[in-house]
Amino acid sequence: MKSKSIGVLRTSTIVLWFAAMASIGCGPQQAAQVSQTPASSTADLMKQRGLSEADVNAALQTYTPTGKKDEYITFASGGHGGNLIVIGVPSMRILKYVGVFTPEPWQGYGYGDQSDTILEEGSRFGKKLTWGDMHHPALSETNGDYDGEFLFVNDKANPRVAVIDLHDFVTKQIVTSTLIQADHGATFVTPNTEYVVESTQYPAPLGGGYAPIEEFQDKYRGAAIFWKFDRENGKIDPAKSFAIELPPYMQDLADAGKLDSEGWVFINSFDTEMAYGGNLEGNPPLESGASQNDMDYMHIINLRAAEQVAKAGKTKKIAGMDVISLDTAIEEGLLHLLGEPKSPHGMDVTPDGKEIVVAGKLDTHATVYEFAKIKSLIEQKKYAGKDAFGVPILPFEDSIRGQVELGLGPLHTQYDDKGNAYTSLFIESAIAKWSIKDLKVLEKVKVHYNVGHIVAAEGDTVNPDGHYLISMNKWAIDRFSKVGPLLPQNFQLINIASEPMQLLYDMPLPLGEPHYAQMIKADKLKPIDVYKPAGYDPIKDEHSANAVKAKEERIVRDGKDVNVYMTAVRSHFTPDIIRVKKGDTVHLHITNVEQAHDATHGFTIGSYNVHSSLEPGKAVDITFVADREGTFPFYCTEFCSALHLEMAGYMLVEPG
Length: 656
Ligand code: K7E
Ligand code: CUA
Hints:
This protein is mainly β. It has 10 helices and 44 strands. Sulfanyl-(tricuprio-$l^{4}-sulfanyl)copper is lined by residues 135-136, 184, 253, 345, 411-412, 452-453, 515-516.
């Protein structure tokens, strides 16, 4: 009782204190005199911790008391950590990691038959991959707004696209095509998620064969893959997907058109010089070879028309993929190029779909292109020339509305609800806020340090929310306590609704390099609490054929195969003794028969690398060979109940 009343008193005192601060604009000392007694505790706290009024103001904008939820959820890629990070905003609390390209033991992801199938289907050239370089998550959209149903994300290193179902936050599919050998313009979705775009970064012979690098211009190619998404099944349908062959430039970020520009896709590129390195062989290093030209090329793809051409079968099969050749793309008018200032990076269609903002790393401007102008130039066939492959180039001057000088190293742009754009300035370590209409910088805010992408609330939709923006900084340097030479990245939360913009919070992110993120209104997500009824296979997304009900537990031997039908419930596994012979293949079928919220169990057998997570209602299958005799305790790895330590058993492997 006593502590409760003190709590109430303290809260009201803080409120009073802030009211006093606001009304008379005074410092902490004077404020302490306004309210009566324990107000000094806030002032004292500020003094003790060396906090300014601005610090406390920022803290009050992010502090989230126990039991209160966040207004937004951010999905950040985990970079070369290969897994997805789910973060609440404004609290900046990490809510979950989702196993995607990298096995994730907590979720049992990659440690059971089902999730292993997913990692297996992400193999390339027969090699199973256990990591990925995750760059750009894309939430599924309906009419250009995030709908909270699915999330797609790419692996740049081993070009792949994963599908995560947001009804349970589980990776359901990984698709890959050996057509290409690295991606970057991925993933981006069309406004109704008909297609998930994945385009190349580094050109290579299509299909993955060898060709001398001296034949770069002839034999190396880029491509854009349009993965067809089947929302009913929650899966990409590779059979209905297709690709377009692109010139051997290094295609970079992409974006899908929306509203006025729906049905079109825009992809940046650099290295239109087609340099390929060779700095020990008498050539300039790749980086300088690729930075000779003053202009690189935006690739403009008419996706609607391309879809028709693919449907008409004007494709050839390469690596199992229907590919529209570069010649066909030119003939059918599917592909146009357009100059872009040197080494562009970000490619961001404005919320109204009317304009495209391109920021060039080596240029201090962002260039604003008008889609209507681009479209009319294409219709009039008004070209400035053709590239070495015969792709028509649209005239730069006739396609832009203007440029805005932003500062050093502009990269990525996001939008708010008031007609403003925000562009990250990598070299300057700042974010520039600018008016789209006036092409004028309104304000800059410093960030720490080397900002890459930025993400605004609902920032890639047709209706951005404004308010919050996260600066995804590559370097942390001196922002946190020292942890050795490998440092976390730093996410800085910024209030963009205030004037001036206000830096609110630093969040270290120690999992790979989160390149990009998307931020969705939390109430758009409707994930389930438990798998109902018990016995659900989350990967196949159906009731498991091997689900086990209480009282139906059993061990069935069939030759050297031993099937163990097991249930888990607080606080025992049934059966709790498994007897096998050395050399047997053990098939565990475990169902957590609980339906209580958060009643998760784990299951592990020591020294056998057997592990699983059993969320309420989940059924898993685990197969392994009992190749070593001995006595192996198994137990529950989640502290699920008072008798959790007793939730255990033995696997006895008799000598064969
Ligand atoms: Cu790191 Cu979008 Cu892959 Cu820019 S990308 S920073
Ligand atoms: Cu079940 Cu601990």
